[in-house]
Amino acid sequence: QVQLVESGGGLVQPGGSLTLSCAASGFTFSNYPMYWYRQAPGKVREYVCTITTAGDRTHYVDSVKGRFTISRDNAENKVYLQMNNLKPEDTAVYYCNIWVGGRDHWGQGTQVTVSS
After folding, report:
1. DSSP character for 26?
2. Number of H helices, E strands in the chain
3. What is the side-by-side order of every strand in the sheet holding 18-25?
């Protein structure tokens, strides 16, 4: 079955950096675009970014453009989210996502807290 396992979250000061990873299994990873979402306390889950199957095109929500970079390694079945110049408003649980088999699949999420 489809499994997504996020890692790499933590506590970081404003202006700091983190790299999140998502290990995928249970489907042909290289055939699907991948997504990152996040959910802040008391808010709905929101789209953050996506990457095409070959990794040659990406798209970001305006609030993270120029600070976040999504990438993927199709040999390792992993997608990454490099986050730079983090702000307190980036505090959230971050999830990787894929639509396969007619439904959304989510990992357990990884907590990112940006605070001094």
Report:
1. S
2. 0, 11
3. 3-7, 18-25, 78-83, 68-73
Can you tell me which residue has the tokens 């959230």? 92
Please tell me whether residue 63 adopts helix, strand or coil conformation: helix
CA 50 to CA 26: how far, in whole Å?
Answer: 20
Q: Are 23 and 88 in contact (CB under 8 A)?
A: no
Helix (H) / strand (E) element for 17: namely none
Instruction: Write the pLDDT tens digit of every residue in 6-63.
Output: 999 999 999 999 999 999 999 999 999 999 999 999 999 999 999 999 999 999 999 9
- Residue 18 token pair: 């983190």
CA separation for the pair 74, 88 (Å, rounded): 32
Distance CA 110, CA 114 (A): 13
Give the pairing type, strands 110-114 and 92-100. antiparallel
DSSP state at residue 56: -
Beta-sheet pairing, 58-60 with 3-7: unpaired
pLDDT in tens, 67-111: 999 999 999 999 999 999 999 999 999 999 999 988 999 999 999
